[in-house]
Amino acid sequence: MARRKKKHDLMTVLVKVHPALREYIISINSGDTLFPERGSHLWGLISMHLQLTPPDYTPTPESETPQDCIRIAIFDSHSRTWCVDLDRVIFQDSIFRNHLGPKAQRAIARHLMADFKHTFRAYMTGAINNNPDISIAEAIDEFCSDYHITMQQLTVDLLRKDWYRWRQSNQTAPSSWAEHSTTE
Q: 11, 129, 165, 170: most buried by Cβ count inside 10 Å?
């Protein structure tokens, strides 16, 4: 029977993310290290982008994680997978391929930001539908306090703009538009 590694024994990779996203991840994960499931989309994205460690790379100790980064645990992996950087199938061994380049970090940060926005939009929809008297600013404040996101002007403006744009793009066309269409 194989012995399972403890969470603190796993290798991790650093990914640079938006400060609000980092606070959200810390809130839902009780720490700045994500442990993706082996079959998840996130793990597939990570394993697809793993590359050899560059010669000039110096690892950052876990106690010194930068404030704009999170850590993602990588599993022992001995399989064939598609490598985006090399544009071909490779034999992946995470002992050697345990680094994410800038392109990979951006792809993973975009994936995590999409999950964050999905959660935010679902929260806002529920808050506004369940309490019609609440303002959008109050709903954003509640979201930020529930997920322990510090209230910075940039964060509030980012969330407000995202909510308005998403709401505008998801509104259905008024029925009066059908009356104005030309039928010949």
A: 11
119, 32 contact by CB (below 8 A):
no
* Separation in Å, CA 8 to CA 43, 54, 57, 76, 109: 18, 24, 22, 14, 23
pLDDT band at 1 (very low <50, low <70, confident <90, very high): very low
Question: Distance between CA 74 and CA 76 in Å, rounded?
Answer: 7
Highest mean pLDDT among 11-15, 89-93, 151-155: 11-15
Pick from 83, 93, 77, 106: nearest CA to 16: 106
Residue type, 8: H
The number of CA neighbours under 13 Å toward the Cβ of 99 is: 14
Task: Convert 115-153 to b/e letters by CB count within 10 Å (16 or more is b).
Answer: ebbeebbebbeebbeeeeeeeeeebbeebbeebebeeee
| Residues 6 or more apart whose Cβ sits within 8 Å of residue 40 | none
By the 8 A CB rule, do 73 and 36 touch?
Answer: yes
Quote the percentage of the chain above a pLDDT of 70: 71
Helix (H/G/I), strand (E/B), else coil: 156: helix
